[in-house]
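Second attempt. The first submission of 4Fe-4S ferredoxin-type domain-containing protein had a stray character pasted in from the spreadsheet, which I only caught after the job came back as garbage. Lesson logged: always re-copy from the clean sequence file. Corrected sequence (543 aa) follows.
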Amino acid sequence: MTEQTQMETINLSTDVLVVGAGMTGAKAATEIAASGYKVVLIDGGAAAGMGVADVDGEEQAALDALMETVNGSEMIEMLPGTRMDGAAGVPGDFRVWLSGNDDIVEKSVGAIVVASELVSSPMNDAYGLTLSETVLSQSQLEAALKTDPAAFSGKSVAFLMGLAQDGNPLVLERVLKSVLAMENMADTSAYVLAGDLKVAEDGLERLYLECRDKGAMYIKLTGMPQVAQEGAALSITYEDPVLQRNVELAPDIVVVEEAIGADEVNAALADMLKIDVGPMGFLQTDNVHRYPVSTNREGIFVVGGSRRVKKRYGALMDAENAALRVRGLLGDGTISVPVDKAVIDTGKCTFCLTCYRCCPHGAIYWEAENKPVISKVACQGCGICASECPMDAIQIGEFNDAAMIETVSRSAAEKSGDAPTIVAFCCQNSGLEAAKMAESFGMPLPEGLKTVTVPCAGKVDVDYVMRALAEGADGVVIMACHNGNCKSEKGSLYAGWRAANAQNMLEAIGVEKERICFATTASNMGADFSSIVMAMEAQLKAK
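This time the job returned cleanly.
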């Protein structure tokens, strides 16, 4: 009979902080409030955010409607001109310090949603141009189209895009909306000189065709054109791939594309919230376990422009996803967790801070008595802290040391005829699934293969590896996730370091280090799993 896991109930704060009062942040606030949670909404010191050409007023109307809902909700506390100066705590019990109007206030919240907006910067320097009355950035053009569209009547306007940077659907959308606005004017001509036109987003191909049908001319270039700027006079010379000769265009106005990136406020927010920063300063790494709105810390979510370049509908979908995740975490204000999910023996603990430094999920903090505490809500059970602890003072639920040693010893002692025994420590998120796939599809596997499940490769202790060899295993394989796709971010790195350490120990006592193999795989790579363990078997048979 399976022993029932003892559970404990933890009370959670159900208030939520949303950082970023743009359209995405406002949408997140209204969705979360609709779930019955009180929301504190601040602008967070972020930039106003980047829009698109809004000649018909649809964008502004959508934002106005959202803000009307925000201002009319008793569940949303709007704090304009306020930023976050600090944060501490764990999911369900975050403490944040907010400053604004010369005051600093402390709030207790159960979850935090970061909704900083995208920002744009003109790329005129990349084209050798200086912004002027006839050389405009995309943002300057959009502003002019809102305030004085008649100024472009009768003009020829050339757009330069996808040449100083890779093509981008959001950049293209801004250009096409501006082009369409101009083609609807009398005697106005629009030229789009571009590299790749990426229309693989909803509505972009239709917009592209509509602009073309109204007279816009698209010129695909394979290289940067020569752009001359002498006062107000402009000329663009490019090699026409059809005519196979140089063509010169003399537009009245040139519009240069803009780079779209993350707000600089993200760096400060990441530091305060202890969340990982991904490419280009966005608050999400390229990790399959982080999509769509997760971070490395439970209870902290990132949406829209805070996590990557997204069109408006995608950012609003993020806001809805974040509301679902908040509801899944906070529920009715209580959560049940296993009592033994992560346990610290404070009698063994020497307060060396190793666990605090290595926890990828910010789950460990210190009490006033200088005792470490693991939040059972924040802990994701990877076991990195347990295997890094020099005093073995931390135990992880069903993967505690006693249970692991028993499993390892039993697996190593089981013999399958004359076949070499291979103990494979398999991360349950990758290697274990790959092993199941290999078995299900009838791929070749060693007769003496024994798999040992671990919550993360970061839980594989050197003691487990050496115990397997001491108890009769001929070889050991540690199957980890690929770097960058480890659910615990750094579990694969720790596992690799420990494998190398164990190999050095074998060499020191005169045993071949090749008896220990470290490999990375993914859950859908059954063929790779088969290849790795079969190679290990062949190597052991050759000894």
